Amino acid sequence: MVGFKNRYIVMEVFLDPDKGFSLNEPIILTQFNVSKAIKDSILLNFGECGLALSLNSFQVKYMNPITKICIFRTSRDEHQQVWTAITMVRSIGNCPVVFNLLDISGSLEACKRAALKCDEFKFEQYKLSTGDSLSPDTQQRMQNLLEKIKTLEH
């Protein structure tokens, strides 16, 4: 018997891409609101049948609200449909967004490495942009998120 084949997608979310970089974000990204926006996009673009096929395996495995990096799991058979639906998401809540693909792989370990590398780089940029105003609470949250990504399992 063959195991269930998955694809893992690492993406970066750009909030309000026309506005540029800002420390005061219009929405806080969570696994729930990202997942809902993607499921709505699958329903809109592929109908109820497409949504039913995708729901079997689709999951937001990781979402970092600070660096806006996320990892999605989907079945190998449906990954192109989910990828297309993610690309077509134009807003989360009332906030315009754009998704950028960073990595796609059949292995969670490979995606964890790619996401960790991007998270660390983007957090360094975030620290530089905030200067001295970075709170210890934010640094602790980021450390917790980096630990979470290291412990992800299928």
How would you describe the overall organization of this protein?
This protein is an alpha+beta fold. The protein has helices spanning 31-55, 79-88, 108-130, 136-150; strands at residues 6-15, 59-63, 69-75, 91-92, 95-105. A five-stranded antiparallel sheet has the order 2-3-1-5-4, with helices on both faces. The longest helix is centred in the first third of the chain and has 25 residues, at 31-55. The protein starts with 5 loop residues before the first strand and ends with a helix. The relative contact order is 0.21. The model has no long low-confidence stretch (mean pLDDT 87).
Short structural summary:
The protein is built from four helices and five strands. The protein is an alpha+beta fold.
Report the end-to-end length measured between terminal Cα atoms: 18 Å
Placed side by side, the strands forming the largest sheet appear as 2-3-1-5-4
Class by alpha and beta content: alpha+beta
Q: Give me the strand/helix succession.
A: EHEEHEEHH
**Helicity, in percent?**
40-55%
Silhouette: globular
- Average pLDDT metric: 87
Topology, number of strands: 5
Stretches where pLDDT is under 50 for at least 5 consecutive residues are none
The biggest beta sheet, please?
Answer: 5 strands, antiparallel
How many alpha or pi helices? 4
Radius of gyration: 16 Å
Strand content: 15-25%
